[in-house]
Amino acid sequence: MEILLVIIIGLLYAAGIYMMLRRSLVKLIIGLILLGNGANLLIFLLGKIVKGEPPIIADTEKMLGEIYADPVPQALILTAIVISFGLQAFAIILIKRAYKVVKTDDLDEMNATDEDL
Amino acid sequence: MLIAVISGFVFALVIPLIMGRLKSKSTLWAALLPLSIFVFFLSILPEIQDNGHVRISYQWVPSIGVNLDFYLDGLSMLFVLLISGIGTLVFIYTSAYLKGHHFLDRFYAYLSMFMASMLGLVLSDNIYTLFIFWELTSISSFFLIGFNNDSEASRKSALTALAITGIGGLFLLAAMVGLGHVTQLNQISAMSSLSEVIQGNNLYGWILLFLFLAAFTKSAQFPFHFWLPGAMKAPTPVSTYLHSATMVKAGIYLLARFTPVLGNHEWWNGPLIIVGAITMVYAAIHALFRLDLKGILAYSTISALGILVFLIGLGTSAALLAAAVFILVHALYKATLFLVTGIIDHETGTRDVSQLGGLNKVMLPVGIAALLAAISNAGIPPSFGFVGKDLIYAATLGMGDLAWPLTILAIITNVALLFAGFLAGIKPFLGKLPERFQHLHLPGPAMYAPPLILGILCILFGLAPFLLESSLIQPVVAGLTGTEPDFHLQLWHGFNLILLLSVITIGSGTALYFILKPSENLLSKVTAFEGISPESIVRLISSGFATFSSGWTRFFQNGYLRYYLITILSFISLMLAYRLFTGITLYVDTSTMTAVTFYEAVVLIIMAVAILFTVFSKSRLVAVASMGVVGYSFCLIFLFYSAPDLAMTQFSIDTLTVILFVLVLYNLPKYLKLSDTRDRVRDGLLSLAFGTLISILTLEVMNETVSKETSQYYAENAYILGKGKNVVNVILVDFRGFDTMVEITVLAIAAIGVFGLLKLHLRSTEKE
Amino acid sequence: MKTIIFKTASAYLLPLLLLFSVFILLRGHYLPGGGFVGGLMAAIAFVIHSFANGIDKTKNIIKFHPGFLMPVGLLLALTAGSLPLAFGDTFMTGLWMKQSVPVIGSVGTALFFDTGVYLVVIGVTLTIIFTISEGL
């Protein structure tokens, strides 16, 4: 299973970067999101994945049992997911604003100084 | 003493604020600062005379040995008095010279900043603060030279000066670090006892080389001399203060300061004598052909600096005595001549010596000052210059085998210098007054008093050299040679060889003055050689460097995001690939892995297909939808592998992201095929390579054992300390609560950003 | 999207989802859930409502600009964090009530902190979504 996940991580990175190398602003942001997902999965995987043992203490216990999913990467990823939402929202609005001003989402055409706008 | 140094910096900060408020027309009061510093140091003079030195130390950055160690001995005293004394006169002079100038406050700020750095430089005993103050003088000099920042020549000269002296500063740092390494000390005054240790060290040659480069660049020695004539673009008070009396002497100071530490070695003496001799003769001859008064003075200053380097290179106690006296002599007469030139320029509007004459009739006091300075410059008795020149000849004559060649070089230099002095100090004032200067009148006393005072001092010290002997010159020489001085400064030594040489110098110099008339013709003959002068070579190097760096920058900083990405990624890929395939043997431990179940495999396949759709879809809506599918598959993976919190969060966020995209995308144009197939293949290959590398890297990292200490702690204490059973949530709101606090703040900022970007901006465009 | 079924459903969905989101928030300390997820749920509830009835109606329900939830939430979180300072503990030390409250369990500063997070997340999400749909 881990090997499959590793392949997916590689695929996410490759797809993210490929999209970021495109000229369209929309694709750039999609690429960023894919890349972020890839990174999340990477962190998740490195914390050693465990099946069916969520890091939640049983009603009768006072601490986790012998086997449990690592809570630290989970907390990290949760933070990352929420933060990247903020980032994405901001980026999406930037596209919108940029499109309103320059009437294109081609990055190359945006590559001009302010006077040309 | 610290106050004396710091006050200049504080003054520089404060003065632009108060000068504007003070409406008063006169800015004479600004001179109170250097005057009080001058008086303060004068009051310490007896202490120096008795004890030899005063030492004060303040901690600054003790952890790396950078302390404000101030050490005031004879040599420092000589410079301190020059800096603050001439500073006072320059401050007074400036108040008239730049009267009503728009940026006068700024000028005073730079000037006092320079004065403070210079004081710091000559007082520093710590090798690092020495470097810091050294650089500060370069920087303030840059501002002062470029003061007329609307003139291109000014800006260019300022840059040249900064480049040359700045490079020198770096060499100084190298020399200082070397010295500190060899001696394990930071205090210069403590190093002189280790002189033999340093000279025996392998690094000695390098330290010398770097130190010489620093001193030569600052003191405008051949072949770095060319920035000084350029620096004459600065207003005259600056030329006077920085480029004749004080800053250019910093290099001399440096050499003198390190004479007891590094000197008395053939590697020390030889280069100094050679460079000093070349500079003094080369520049003195150059001075003969100049028309611009400031140009003449600039070259004669370079020549004088050459003499000083030469004398320090000789290294005998007679030579060091001569150097000490000559520093003072030169500062006095050269400052006078510069100030006079400034007055001439200010009043007549020209500095072309061939057009000037007869100004005595309109500004007699200025003429007197100039005459006194020219006499001292020429070394005609009873001036202080005569004393100085005698000492120089005495020093060269005492050099054994080399006595005569060295003396002849000194004579040639002195003859040319005498000529230059007459040209600047006498020529403009004698003869017939041109028609167009008839209406001129004497400027205010704030302008002519400073040169007059200096001019009178030139003669006064000549008539009564005992005024300086025990108080100032003896401590200097004692500090430099380390022995008790036994000499007496005298005007009259009786009839001897030295007197004869003086007479020859004065005679031939005066004769030259009457024979050689400065003209355009002569100037053009010299300028023909400029193609091979060091200045042109440096310009060539610097322009080549500029072309190269702008090409380099344009290649990498081309403004296209994807090329930046490509550069970065290719580099990372290469590094990763190199490391992975050379240093690490790949192996995958399948035994510890979890088995693949049917559901998971299906989810992963869906995910892979969705990724491919996202990338290759022609429609934006499909791309966004497939991205949503990728996100939901993530939820499932998180769910399978015991992360319910993550699954829930991912689900909500994914929903919202898709909604956002859809909301915005309706207004955007359709995907266009923007790149050709070649680009796509190239990008595809690069991203595949990078993705593969990441996969391999992940596999490798998974083999590493992960330290579980942190997780263990949280797992054990979540309920006991945090009273919660959902460990992830306890981490978020309790153990790492502060992080979460910051995170929600960031989120709020993002929302405000979105709000501002859309709402506020729209309103401002509506206004237009 | 403004079908009658959807409209009618959303009228009931909104309070239900909001209640659910509060439930998620409160149980977060013991079971999966918490301020982040709860906040997102609540935001989604409002978004669904706005899709069905138009954004103006949703705004009428909320009555004030959702942006105000951000400072309120931040202040609540900060207060919860700095409350221990008043008792001589360091910043962010968890304080707990002696008796536990039914349904919620034991009440402590962490709960208030999480509620702050909840409010901020609602505020941020709704601000973003509303701003965008108005800007269209």
From TrEMBL, chain A:
Its main location: membrane. It is a multi-pass membrane protein. Keywords: Cell membrane, Membrane, Transmembrane, Transmembrane helix. The keyword Hydrolase does not apply. Gene3D superfamilies: 1.10.287.3510. InterPro entries: CPA3_antiporter_subunitC, NUOK/Mnh_C1-like. NCBIfam families: PRK09094.1, PRK12659.1. Belongs to the CPA3 antiporters (TC 2.A.63) subunit C family. This is Na+/H+ antiporter subunit C. It comes from Cyclobacterium plantarum. The lineage of its organism: Bacteria, Pseudomonadati, Bacteroidota, Cytophagia, Cytophagales.
UniProtKB/TrEMBL annotation, chain B:
The chain crosses the membrane at residues 6-22, 27-45, 75-95, 107-124, 130-147, 159-183, 203-228, 268-289, 296-314, 320-341, 362-382, 402-426, 447-468, 495-516, 563-581, 593-614, 621-641, 647-669, 681-699, 744-762. Residues 680-760 form the MrpA C-terminal/MbhE domain. The keyword Endoplasmic reticulum does not apply. Keywords: Antiport, Cell membrane, Ion transport, Membrane, Transmembrane, Transmembrane helix, Transport. Coiled coil: none annotated. Residues 124-403 form the NADH:quinone oxidoreductase/Mrp antiporter transmembrane domain. Residues 63-108 form the NADH-Ubiquinone oxidoreductase (complex I) chain 5 N-terminal domain. It is found in: Cell membrane; Membrane. It is a multi-pass membrane protein. Residues 605-670 form the MrpA C-terminal/MbhD domain. PANTHER family: NA(+)/H(+) ANTIPORTER SUBUNIT, NA(+)_H(+) ANTIPORTER SUBUNIT A. This is Monovalent cation/H+ antiporter subunit A. It comes from Cyclobacterium plantarum.
From TrEMBL, chain C:
PANTHER family: NA(+)/H(+) ANTIPORTER SUBUNIT B, NA(+)_H(+) ANTIPORTER SUBUNIT B. It comes from the Bacteria. Its main location: membrane. Residues 5-127 form the Na+/H+ antiporter MnhB subunit-related protein domain. Keywords: Cell membrane, Membrane, Transmembrane, Transmembrane helix. Belongs to the CPA3 antiporters (TC 2.A.63) subunit B family. The keyword Cell membrane applies. It holds the Pfam family MnhB. InterPro entries: CPA3_antiporter_subunitB, MnhB. It is a multi-pass membrane protein. This is Na+/H+ antiporter subunit B. NCBIfam families: PRK12509.1. It is found in: Cell membrane. The chain crosses the membrane at residues 12-30, 36-55, 67-87, 107-132.
